[in-house]
C-alpha cells in the first residue's frame, strides 16, 4: 500500500505531461479595455497542437503559438461573457479539451435616453388633485448601462407651472396634479424633464438627457350659463342681472321690448365650450301676455294690457346639451301712456351744407362734417315707443326730414344761416316735442356726384363732403386752365405796353421818333390864348425826313448834349423871369392828320430829356398862328391870324 501511495503522484504527473493544460480558466475584464498582452499561456505536450473549438465566442479570441489573446474590445452591453474552447490534438485525434471564461465588467459609458423628444398630454380642467396625470412607464428613460440608477428632475418652462404638477419621486418619473386647474388662468404648461445616471451632478463619468413635456388644459363644463351683464365674484360664480321694462297700457308693441340694463342675453359660463343657450319661461307667463324667443331671448307682447299692472317673469337659460342652466327675473310694468312726451337730448342742433346743393342732399353734422346730421328724440318713460316717433320740419320749406336725417327740399342758391323747427311726434301716445336746427349754407362747392345724367336732367347722387381733397387729374386740369389764363394775361399786357409806350421805347433807343397817330396832351403847356394854325396833311415821302425847321429866328436847336443843361421849365418864363435864363425848347411840327405836335425839354422833369406831346384838334387850331420862339412860354400870345410862316410839307418829324 505504501508503494502505491508513492507511485500515484508520479503516475498523475506522467499523465499530465501527456495533455494540454492552463493555469487559470476564469478571467474578469472591464469593458472597453484594449490590451496587447496575452490573456494566458497554454502548456501543449510535444507532438500536439492547440486550436479554438467551435464553442468559442466568435471573433473574440485568437491563439498565437501557445498563447491566448483577446481579439476584440469587450463591450458589456453587447456580450457580458466571452468563452474560449481550447482543443489539443495529436494528428486528427483530440487529446484534450479546455474551456476558458472571460467575464466582462460593466462600466458607465452610455447616456440615458428618452423614447421621445417632446410629448403633449391633454389634461381635463376638472381633474382631481393628487391624480397621476402621466404614469411612470410613459415618462421613464432607458439606460444601456444595466446597473445604472436613473435620477429625474422636473424643471418648469412656463412660469408657475411647478405649482400645479410634480414628480412622484426622484427615481419615479410619474407626473402628479398638486392643485386644481383653471382653464381661464393657465391653458398650457411646459416642462423640461431631465434624467441623470448619477445621483451627484459633478461625478465622472456622468450622463444626462432631457425631454419636453407640454400639458394642455382642456375646458370642462364647470359653470352654468350667466345672464349678462353680471358681476363676477370669482371664476365660477356670477351675480346675474335682473331685467326691467315698461309697456303702455292699451297698446300691443310690435317689436322686442326694450329692457334695462339691456336685452335678455346669457352665455355659457365656460366660454371655451360655449354651448348655445335656450330660453324659456319658468314662471309668471301664465296669462300669455308675453312670449320669449327660444334662441334670442327677445321678449315680445302677445296681447295688450288693459290696465296698469306689474309682471314678474322668471326666465330660464339652459345649455343646449342640457348640462347646466340658470334663471333670472324680468319685471315688466304696464303704465298709462297718456301724456307721455318725447324729449330731444339737445335744444339746438347745428348742420352744414354747400351752396348749390340740389334736392335730397343730406345736411352734415357741423361737429363731424363727414357724418350726416341725425336728430333723434326719445320717450323717457316708454323706450319701446321710440320707434313710433316721427319727425317733420314745420317752418322752413328748404329742408325736410327723412327719418332722423335732414335733407334739402330745394335748390340752395344763397349762402347764409337757416333755422328750422323739427317736431317729433309719438304716434302711439300723440305726445310731441320740438327742437331747433341751425343750418349753415356755405360757399363750399357741393361734393361730386356719383352719377349725373346729361342735359335732360337725370338724377344725381351726392357724395359725402367730409373729404375735400382733389384728385391728381382734377389738379392737373386746374393747373392747365390757370396756366392758359396767365399766358393770355401776359400777351394782353405786352400788347398794351407796346401800344402806350412803344414810341418812347423807340425814342430812348436813339432812333427817329416815328409819327404817332395820336399823342399825349400835357395841359401844363397849353395856354388859354395859344392857337395853332391848321395845315394840310402832307403825303408821306420815302427817304430820310428833312431836318426840323425853327418856327421863328433865334438860337439854333440844341444838340442832344445840351438837352441835359436846360435850367428851368417854360413855366418859370411865364412867371416873368428872364427868358435868357430859361433854356427850354418848345418846338412844333405839323401832323399828317392835322394839328401840330410840340416838344419841350427841361431839366425840371428829370435828368433825361422828357418829351411832351401836345395835340390840338383841328377845330381849335383854325386861325391860330404857327409861330413860336425858344424860351417863351407864351408862344401864341402875340400871334394873330396870318402871323408866322407855314411849315413845308414833310416837316412833320423832329430828330434829336
Helix/strand class: mainly beta
The pLDDT mean sits at 77
Distance between the termini: 187 Å
Number of strands: 35
- Morphology call: elongated
Rg, Cα atoms, Å = 64 Å
Q: Please summarize the sheet with the most strands.
A: 5 strands, mixed
Low-confidence stretches: 446-468, 509-586, 600-656
Q: Regarding quaternary structure, how should these chains be classified?
A: single chain
Q: What count of helical segments does DSSP give?
A: 5
Helix content: under 10%
Strand order of the largest sheet: 20-19-26-25-22
Strand fraction: 25-35%
Q: In short, what is this structure?
A:
It is found in: Apical cell membrane; Cell projection, Microvillus membrane. Keywords: Calcium, Cell membrane, Cell projection, Differentiation, Glycoprotein, Membrane, Phosphoprotein, Repeat, Signal, Transmembrane, Transmembrane helix. The protein has 656 residues and is mainly beta.
How would you portray this structure in words?
There is one protein chain. With about 650 residues, this protein is mainly β. It is about 10% helix and about 30% strand. It has 5 helices and 35 strands. The protein has a 5-stranded mixed β-sheet, with no helix packed on it. A 5-stranded mixed β-sheet has the order 28-27-33-32-29, with no helix packed on it. A 4-stranded antiparallel β-sheet has the order 1-3-6-5, with no helix packed on it. The chain is elongated, with a radius of gyration of 64 Å. Mean pLDDT is about 75; it is low at about 445-470, about 510-585 and about 600-655. It is a single-pass type I membrane protein. Its main location: membrane. One of its GO terms (biological process) is cell differentiation.
Amino acid at each position: 500500500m505504501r508503494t502505491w501511495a508513492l507511485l500515484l503522484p508520479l503516475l498523475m504527473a506522467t499523465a499530465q505531461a501527456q495533455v494540454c493544460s492552463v493555469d487559470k480558466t476564469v478571467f474578469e475584464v472591464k469593458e472597453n479595455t484594449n490590451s496587447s498582452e496575452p490573456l494566458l499561456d497554454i502548456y501543449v505536450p510535444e507532438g500536439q497542437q492547440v486550436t479554438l473549438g467551435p464553442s468559442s465566442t466568435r471573433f473574440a479570441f485568437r491563439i498565437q503559438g501557445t498563447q491566448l489573446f483577446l481579439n476584440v474590445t469587450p463591450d458589456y452591453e453587447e456580450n457580458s461573457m466571452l468563452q474560449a474552447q481550447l482543443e489539443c490534438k495529436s494528428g486528427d485525434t483530440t487529446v484534450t479539451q479546455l474551456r476558458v471564461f472571460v467575464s466582462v465588467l460593466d462600466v458607465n459609458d452610455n447616456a440615458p435616453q428618452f423614447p421621445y423628444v417632446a410629448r403633449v398630454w391633454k389634461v381635463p380642467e376638472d381633474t382631481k388633485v393628487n391624480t397621476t396625470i402621466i404614469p411612470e412607464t410613459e415618462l421613464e428613460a432607458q439606460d444601456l448601462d444595466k446597473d445604472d440608477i436613473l435620477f429625474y428632475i422636473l424643471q418648469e418652462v412656463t412660469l408657475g407651472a411647478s405649482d400645479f404638477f410634480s414628480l412622484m419621486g426622484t427615481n419615479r418619473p410619474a407626473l402628479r396634479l398638486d392643485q386644481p386647474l383653471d382653464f381661464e388662468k393657465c391653458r398650457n404648461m411646459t416642462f423640461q424633464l431631465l434624467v441623470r445616471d448619477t445621483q451627484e451632478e459633478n461625478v465622472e463619468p456622468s450622463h444626462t438627457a432631457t425631454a419636453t413635456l407640454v400639458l394642455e388644459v382642456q375646458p370642462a363644463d364647470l359653470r352654468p350659463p350667466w345672464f349678462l351683464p353680471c358681476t363676477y365674484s370669482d371664476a365660477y360664480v356670477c351675480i346675474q342681472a335682473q331685467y326691467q321694462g315698461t309697456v303702455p297700457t292699451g297698446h300691443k308693441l310690435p317689436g322686442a321690448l326694450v329692457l334695462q340694463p339691456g336685452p335678455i342675453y346669457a352665455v355659457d359660463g365656460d366660454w371655451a365650450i360655449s354651448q348655445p343657450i335656450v330660453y324659456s319661461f319658468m314662471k309668471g307667463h301664465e296669462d300669455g301676455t308675453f312670449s320669449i324667443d327660444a334662441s334670442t331671448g327677445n321678449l315680445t307682447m302677445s296681447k295688450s294690457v288693459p290696465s296698469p299692472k306689474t309682471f314678474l317673469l322668471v326666465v330660464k337659460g339652459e345649455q343646449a346639451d342640457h348640462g347646466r342652466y340658470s334663471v333670472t327675473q324680468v319685471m315688466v310694468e304696464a303704465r298709462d301712456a297718456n301724456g307721455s312726451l318725447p324729449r330731444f337730448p339737445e335744444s339746438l342742433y347745428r348742420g352744414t351744407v354747400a351752396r348749390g346743393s340740389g334736392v335730397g342732399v343730406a345736411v352734415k353734422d357741423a361737429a363731424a362734417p363727414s357724418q350726416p346730421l341725425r336728430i333723434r328724440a326719445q320717450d323717457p318713460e316708454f323706450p319701446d315707443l321710440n320707434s313710433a316717433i316721427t319727425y317733420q320740419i314745420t317752418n322752413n320749406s328748404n329742408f325736410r326730414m327723412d327719418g332722423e336725417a335732414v335733407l334739402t327740399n330745394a335748390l340752395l342758391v344763397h349762402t347764409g344761416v337757416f333755422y328750422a323747427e323739427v317736431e317729433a311726434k309719438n304716434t302711439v301716445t300723440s305726445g310731441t316735442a320740438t327742437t331747433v336746427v341751425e343750418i349753415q349754407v356755405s360757399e363750399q362747392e357741393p361734393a361730386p356726384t356719383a352719377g349725373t345724367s346729361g342735359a335732360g336732367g337725370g338724377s344725381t347722387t351726392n357724395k359725402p363732403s367730409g373729404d375735400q381733397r382733389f384728385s391728381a387729374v382734377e389738379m392737373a386740369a386746374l393747373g392747365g386752365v390757370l396756366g392758359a389764363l396767365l399766358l393770355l394775361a401776359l400777351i394782353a399786357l405786352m400788347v398794351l405796353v407796346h401800344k402806350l409806350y412803344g414810341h418812347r421805347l423807340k425814342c430812348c433807343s436813339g432812333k427817329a421818333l416815328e409819327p404817332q397817330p395820336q399823342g399825349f396832351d400835357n395841359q401844363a403847356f397849353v395856354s388859354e390864348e395859344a392857337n395853332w394854325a391848321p395845315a394840310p396833311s402832307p403825303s408821306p415821302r420815302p427817304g430820310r425826313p428833312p431836318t426840323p425847321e425853327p418856327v421863328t429866328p433865334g438860337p439854333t436847336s440844341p444838340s442832344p448834349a445840351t438837352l441835359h443843361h436846360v435850367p428851368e421849365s417854360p413855366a418859370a418864363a411865364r412867371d416873368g423871369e428872364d427868358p435868357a435864363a430859361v433854356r427850354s425848347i418848345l418846338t412844333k411840327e405839323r401832323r399828317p392828320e392835322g394839328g401840330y405836335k410840340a416838344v419841350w425839354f427841361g431839366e425840371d422833369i428829370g435828368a433825361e430829356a422828357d418829351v411832351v406831346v401836345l395835340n390840338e384838334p383841328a377845330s381849335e387850331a383854325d386861325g391860330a398862328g404857327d409861330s413860336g420862339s425858344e424860351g417863351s412860354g407864351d408862344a401864341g400870345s402875340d400871334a394873330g391870324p396870318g402871323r408866322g410862316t407855314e411849315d413845308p410839307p414833310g416837316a412833320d418829324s423832329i430828330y434829336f
